[in-house]
């Protein structure tokens, strides 16, 4: 069975079984569910709370505390434009503007075709390479507005 054919409930059950329904592992459980489903659907959070016998509010508080978690569906490709100080002074604003124009999506949004989610981050620890853009976990350094289109086209 592929991930595409797995239901949300099946994914949650598999992840919870992996963690032996241990509520102290809630962060890891949510990370794994998101890794499988690409976001944390409401049904998955409800099911997690029920199976772990913990309040749904606790699950939501963890899911909303960490920026890495998303309660909305994300695009297949994640583009994170660093807006930290070092990147900002080297032109990150222009890079972000170009991504927003090319994708017709603002930072924090996902394109209607679900292909891209554009987000900003504050320093990814590679300041010397700035402006930095992280595409699907891969760092691109010294990004200029002119390079944006080819970065997008490089995402299959
Ligand atoms: S400010 Fe962008 S990597 Fe540090």
From TrEMBL:
Pfam families: 2Fe-2S_thioredx. [2Fe-2S] cluster binds at residues 82, 87, 123, 127. Binds 1 [2Fe-2S] cluster. Keywords: 2Fe-2S, Iron, Iron-sulfur, Metal-binding. The keyword Iron applies. This is NAD(P)H-dependent oxidoreductase subunit E. Its cofactor is [2Fe-2S] cluster. GO terms for molecular function: 2 iron, 2 sulfur cluster binding; metal ion binding; oxidoreductase activity. Belongs to the complex I 24 kDa subunit family. It comes from Dehalogenimonas sp. 4OHTPN. The keyword Iron-sulfur applies.
């Amino acid at each position: 069975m592929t991930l595409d054919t797995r239901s949300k409930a099946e994914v949650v059950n598999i992840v919870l079984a992996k963690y032996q329904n241990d509520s102290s592992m809630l962060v890891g459980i949510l990370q794994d569910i998101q890794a499988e489903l690409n976001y944390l659907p409401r049904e998955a959070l409800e099911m997690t709370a029920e199976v772990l016998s913990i309040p749904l509010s606790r699950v939501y508080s963890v899911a909303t505390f960490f920026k890495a978690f998303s309660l909305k569906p994300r695009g297949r490709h994640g583009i994170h434009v660093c807006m930290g100080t070092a990147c900002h002074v080297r032109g990150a604003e222009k890079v972000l503007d170009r991504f927003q124009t090319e994708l017709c999506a603002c930072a924090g949004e996902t394109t209607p075709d679900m292909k891209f989610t554009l987000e900003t981050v504050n320093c990814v620890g590679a300041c010397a390479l700035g402006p930095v853009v992280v595409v699907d976990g891969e760092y691109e350094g010294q990004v200029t507005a002119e390079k944006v289109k080819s970065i997008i086209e490089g995402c299959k």
